[in-house]
Amino acid sequence: MSIRIQPSILSADFVNLESDFGTITSADGIHLDIMDGHFVPNMTFGTGMVKRMQDISSLPLDVHLMIENPDHWAPKYAELGVFSVTVHFEACTGPIQLSKEIKALGSRAGLSIKPNTPVSVLRGLVHHFDQILVMSVEPGFGGQSFIESSLEKISEVRSLIDKDSPDTWLQVDGGIDLKTISAAAAVGADTFVAGSSVFGSSDRNGMIAQLRQAAEAAAPNM
Ligand code: DX5
Ligand code: ZN
Hints:
Blueprint: E1 4-7, H1 17-21, E2 30-35, H2 47-56, E3 61-66, H3 70-78, E4 84-88, H4 95-104, E5 108-113, E6 131-135, H5 150-164, E7 169-173, H6 180-186, E8 191-194, H7 196-199, H8 204-218
Parallel strand pairs: 1-8, 2-3, 3-4, 4-5, 5-6, 6-7, 7-8
The chain binds D-xylitol-5-phosphate and zinc ion.
C-alpha cells in the first residue's frame, strides 16, 4: 500500500496561489475543492481557475466537486487534463456513466460520500472508480474536526475495495492532522487530504513529511 498526501488549497492564500504551490512541492498532488453555494453552503472557484492551475502546477491536480449536477460539470474538469475528478454520490444521477466519461477524457474518476451517507450505497460501484473519498467532515469548510465515526466507514470501504477492486485508492478528507492521520491509516485509508494542518504550518514540506511518516507507521501492510 502506498501513502499519498494531497494538501487542499482551501486553506491557501487565494491571491498568491502560485507561490503557495511552491511551498508544497513534496506533496503527491494538490486537492482542489470546487464548491457552488448549493450542494454546500460555500463557494470557491471553477473551470477558469483550474485551467490556469493546470498550466502552472508541476503536481497532479485532484479535483473534488462539491457541486450540484456533476453529471454535466465533471467532464468539463476532465477536459482540462487534471489528474482526477471526484464527484459526490449524493449529487450524481448516473455515477457509472459519469465514471466512464471522466476516464475516457483521461482523468481518474473518484466517488465521494458525505458523513451521513452509508457505505452500503457504494456496493456494486467501487470497481467503476479509481478512488473512493470518505468525507470525514461535513463538506463546505476547512478547519473542522475529524468525525470519529468516519473510521468505521473507512474500514468498511477498505473491505469493499479489497474484495472488488484492490487498485482503487481510499481517500479521506477533513480534519486530517498528525493525530487523526494515524487512526485513518490504521483502518485502511491510503490517500490523505490535509488543508489547515499543512497550510497552517510554517514548514509545509516538513509537515507533509511528518504526515507521511505517521501514516506509513500506522498503515497495515506497509
Ligand atoms: C471540505 C473540503 C476539504 C477541506 C479540508 O469541504 O473538502 O478538502 O479543505 O480541510 P481541513 O484539512 O482543514 O479539514
Ligand atoms: Zn475536499
